[in-house]
Design a protein that fits this description.
39% of the residues lie in helices and 7% in strands. With 153 residues, the protein is mainly alpha-helical. The protein has a three-stranded antiparallel sheet with strand order 1-2-3, with no helix packed on it. It is globular, with a radius of gyration of 18 Å.
């Protein structure tokens, strides 16, 4: 037994929970960034493919085949096929002058850091709350799929 509180002075745990974007936040981003912008294309790839940013920034035009985007995930090495569906219109307005679907303002392939900085700046410029992160779009995609009756698989 002790006469003092055992966790006194211990720093609290900082949660790394990622916020799931809600439909209002999704709409705000879409209103701010018009179709045809790199930022809107990035957003669409993140939301409609439900892939991690580390897989999205590496996607190439050659990955699109027979109406699907074929991805070998970097983190798990799993192969995944995403039917474009809602992406069709956004992809049709995209600049195809580079091998990767997303390219920097200089027409180069993104680095991991550069990709993260670009999408973070786009989120801030759209006026979204600080809790909105790129990975939250992956969670929003999963939530939409669950609400549509899809299984975890």
């Amino acid at each position: 037994m002790t006469d003092r509180y055992p966790t006194a002075g211990v720093r609290g745990y900082k949660s790394k929970k990622i916020h799931t974007w809600n439909e209002t936040e999704i709409t705000l981003f879409k209103r701010h960034w018009a179709e045809g912008t790199r930022e809107r294309l990035t957003f669409a790839l993140l939301l409609y493919t439900s892939q991690r940013g580390s897989d999205v920034y590496r996607m190439t035009w050659a990955d699109i085949s027979r109406g699907a985007i074929l991805v070998a995930q970097q983190k798990t090495a799993a192969h995944h096929s995403d039917p474009p569906g809602a992406l069709d219109r956004v992809l049709s307005t995209a600049n195809r002058s580079h091998s990767t679907i997303l390219a920097t303002a200089y027409g180069e392939r993104f680095s991991v850091k550069g990709f993260g900085q670009m999408i973070s700046a786009a989120i801030r410029e759209a006026g979204l709350p600080r809790r909105c992160k790129a990975h939250g779009l992956r969670k929003a995609a999963a939530q939409r799929l669950a609400e549509a009756g899809c299984s975890a698989s």
